[in-house]
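Suppose you are handed a protein chain with no further information: no name, no annotation, nothing but its sequence. What can you learn? This example shows the usual starting point.
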Amino acid sequence: MTESGELIRQLRPEESAFINNERLLSRIDFLYWVERYCYIIKDGGGLGLFSPWDSQRVVLNIIVKLEDELWDAAE
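A reasonable first move is to predict its three-dimensional structure. Written in structure tokens, the prediction is:
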């Protein structure tokens, strides 16, 4: 990319398809996005890819279940 944010060349169809797929998966699956694209400041300094603890996964699964129930009730 240039400094203005424009692409240096046009994307090939497979590159464009990959980007679209990653965007869709990231929208529908929070953990997919977190494990691949979410960087945090580590305790010792510097950036590192976020890796959720088991307890955080349990809480996220509970939230998912509750949201599913709310969507079902709304329908």
